Amino acid sequence: MFISTATSHEEADRAATVAVLPVGSFEQHGDHLPLSTDTFVACAIARRLADDYNLLLLPPITISCSHEHAGFAGSVSISSSTLSAIVRDVFASLKQSGIPKLVVTNGHGGNYVLANIVQEANLGDRQMLLYPRGEDWDDARRVAGLDTNNHEDMHGGEAETSILLANAPEMVRPSYVDADFDVRDRRYLLTTGMAGYTKSGIIGRPSVATAEKGRALLDAFSATFRNHLAQLQ
Q: Which residue from 25, 91, 120, 180 has the fewest beta carbons nearer than 10 Å?
């Protein structure tokens, strides 16, 4: 269960001072992963952090900035300004209820605006984290023993497929074992979108994904997060 079932009384007893907000997307992930993949990934990470560090787990933002996936069936986006407004409104509401810190767990690489939101929020007091960042994915991949790196395994590949195999295996179609597709040079991605580089929608190596790697990734994210959380103190 990725969405919290806690009552308001239970949250009052928890008295968390930090909330965690998963931000996913609703976009194509080839024919072996669901449109909601990024939301499941963000929620899996957020749930683990909330459990391990006693944070208030918020429900996910399920549609975000997936404009590079336009043209693939089912993909839906909101504007960066809308996403920014939602995150800022959530943060303002949290502060009104006595929770002054927010961790944003981002499951979609195209949500560039989240970095700006966090930087602006921290101009005075340290109030917000964006996690995991690219470096955190690098570290987690290494610790978990993945075969690929962030660049080559961009979308629907080893990492995302592994996390779903570990947490929602019923959502992974068997075709993942034959879905590998490699595109190293993607310098025109912002102009052409994903359709300019891949017909399947995949850039990565899902064939080497395992549930064991997915569990190891979440273990690594939880361990690395401790140092990030210390920055909010």
A: 120
- 201 burial type by CB count under 10 A (0-12 exposed, 13-18 middle, 19+ buried): buried
Taking the complete model, does pTM exceed 0.85, yes or no? yes
- Taking CA atoms, 27 is separated from 18, 38, 72, 75, in Å, by 29, 8, 8, 4
Do 160 and 109 contact (CB within 8 A), yes or no? no
Query: Across-strand partners of 61?
Result: 23
Q: Identify the H or E element spanning 129.
A: strand 128-131
Q: How many CB atoms lie within 10 A of CB 187?
A: 7
List Cβ neighbours of 162 (8 Å cut-off, separation of 6 or more): 144, 146, 209, 210, 211, 212, 213, 214, 217
DSSP sequence for 1-63: --S----HHHHHHHT-SEEEEEE--B--BTBTB-TTHHHHHHHHHHHHHHHHHTPEEPPPB--
**Chain centroid, CA 233 distance in Å:** 23
Tell me: the pLDDT tens digits for 17-60? 999 999 999 999 999 999 999 999 999 999 999 999 999 999 99
C-alpha–C-alpha distance, residues 2 and 15, integer Å: 20
Q: What is the pLDDT of residues 56-75, one digit of tens each?
A: 999 999 999 999 999 999 99
CA atoms of 215 and 218, how far apart (whole Å): 5
Q: Do the Cβ atoms of 206 and 162 come closer than 8 Å?
A: no
Domain boundaries, the chain: 8-230
Task: Check whether 206 has a pLDDT greater than 70.
Answer: yes
Q: Can you tell me the distance from the alpha carbon of 199 to that of 80, in angstroms, rounded to the nearest whole number?
A: 26
